[in-house]
Amino acid sequence: MAKRSFPLSKVYGLLEPGPVVLLTTVRGGVPDVMTLSWHVMLEFEPPLVGVVLSDRDYSYDSLAASRECVIAIPTVDIAHAVVGCGNTSGRDTDKFAAFGLTALPASQVAAPLIAECQANLECRVVDTTLVARYGFFVLEVVKAWIDPARRGQQTLHHRGYGDFMVSGTTIRLPSRMR
């Protein structure tokens, strides 16, 4: 089969990094949530996660100022809320109320957990070296929560321009990692 040229503007859909997540922050005591698919695991212990936020995003200033957030991992059952949060701004919308999400108190950070998500990771910013140039924040996960009733449910994966893939079948292959 012959190879064809592919638009550079669509490359990110080929390298999709993982599940779409919801990132919560607090500004002036008011919680906000944004949809995020630009993230990457950087280290196992302590768990370090890199996230990219545009300086045009309302959450960017909140994260830069507070230096803490929660990464919540939603499942396909709340896909419409996830997309809704991504298509609106916290500048003029209470996204928790607008999309039926429940904010729960976190134990280590001011940003809230999201009750409807299968997992929530409380995070603190530990490196801002690449923020000015790339909007890349390095976060350390300081507390992790899992909802056993939701664990293993299908997650969303952004493919670009409104296209999402839903996680599929899990297979197990030999591995030396523990």
TrEMBL record:
Named cofactor requirement(s): FMN
Keyword annotations from UniProtKB, A to Z: Flavoprotein
Domain Flavin reductase like as annotated: residue spans: 13-165
InterPro entries documented for this protein: Flavin_Rdtase-like_dom, Flavoredoxin, Split_barrel_FMN-bd
Highest taxon of the lineage: Bacteria
One Pfam family this sequence matches: Flavin_Reduct
GO molecular function (one): oxidoreductase activity, acting on the CH-NH group of donors, NAD or NADP as acceptor
Record has Flavoprotein as a keyword: yes
Family the entry assigns: Belongs to the flavoredoxin family.
Protein name per its UniProtKB record: Flavin reductase family protein
Source organism: Pseudothauera rhizosphaerae
Native organism taxonomy: Bacteria, Pseudomonadati, Pseudomonadota, Betaproteobacteria, Rhodocyclales
